[in-house]
Specification:
Layout lengths: L5 H9 L8 H10 L8 E8 L11 E5 L10 E4 L2 H10 L3 E3 L1 H8 L7 E4 L4 H5 L2 H4 L17 H10 L1 E5 L5 E8 L4 H17 L10 E8 L5 E3 L2 H4 L1
Parallel strand pairs: 3-4, 3-5
Antiparallel strand pairs: 1-7, 1-8, 2-6, 8-9
Helix pairs in contact: 2-8, 3-7
Protein name: Large ribosomal subunit protein uL1
Keywords: Repressor, Ribonucleoprotein, Ribosomal protein, RNA-binding, rRNA-binding, Translation regulation, tRNA-binding
Subunit structure: Part of the 50S ribosomal subunit.
């Protein structure tokens, strides 16, 4: 077993094994045991009692965090020329179509979200092999394929996130930054977990939300009492 660093030892001493912490306690503790020199992300992992292999138990959705993620989301809008000014005015970082399609085919993916229009999806669809594995493929269900480009860009920049249960039945997302105060973390967590709870598939049996963990980019995970988030 590798030797614990001084900070790792301090962190492990503060976390009580097997304890369920309230969301406020967990947020405060994660802030205390994060020693990175940068403003780390505050991450949440929600383990669900579903079988993602079955279509009727897939959980996917979007939610707008009231305080955003604290991250500067890089947005690419792939649109026709008549929509370019609208996209730039809304705050898109990159705007265009054919030139960016060519760049992406060449392997460029230095972006976080792609927003496009139904009328150009034929061109965007050809990028599936590059965008799909990176989770960047636009999807009407997540609001990233739309004619209302300005609204979509504004929402993403304000903290709208797309989430999906993975093959292990876990939903993972950043819900803020370590620099956020406890109240903001609490409110973002409540919105995030609340939306997941609303999306419970009718085919899911037994306990739906099995566990929730809060952590920072490089900290231990703290198990959160689900009731402290949903109540």
């Amino acid at each position: 077993m590798g030797k614990l660093t001084k900070n790792s030892k301090l962190a492990s001493e503060k976390v009580e094994t097997g304890k369920l912490y309230s969301i406020d306690e967990a947020a405060k503790l994660v802030k205390e045991i994060t020693f990175t020199k940068f403003d780390a992300s505050m991450d949440m992992d929600v383990r669900l009692g579903v079988d993602p292999r079955k279509a009727n138990q897939m959980v996917r959705g979007v939610v707008t965090l009231p305080h955003g993620t604290g991250k500067n989301v890089r947005v690419l809008v792939l649109c026709t020329p008549d929509k370019e000014e609208e996209a730039r005015a809304a705050g898109a970082d990159h705007v265009g179509l054919d030139d960016y399609v060519a760049k992406i085919k060449g392997g460029w993916t230095d972006i976080d979200v792609i927003i496009t229009m139904p009328t150009v999806m034929a061109k965007v669809g050809a990028l599936g092999r590059v965008l799909g594995p990176r989770g960047l493929m636009p999807n009407p269900k997540s609001g990233t394929v739309t004619m209302d480009i300005a609204k979509a860009v504004t929402e993403v920049k304000a903290g709208k996130i797309d989430f999906k249960v993975d093959k292990y039945g876990i939903i993972h997302s950043s819900i803020g930054k370590v620099s956020f105060d406890v109240d903001r973390i609490h409110e973002n967590a409540k919105e995030f977990v609340g939306m997941i709870n609303k999306l419970k598939p009718s085919a899911a049996k037994g306990t739906y939300i099995k566990s929730v963990y809060l952590s920072s980019t490089m900290s231990l995970g703290i198990q959160v009492d689900v009731k402290s988030i949903l109540d």
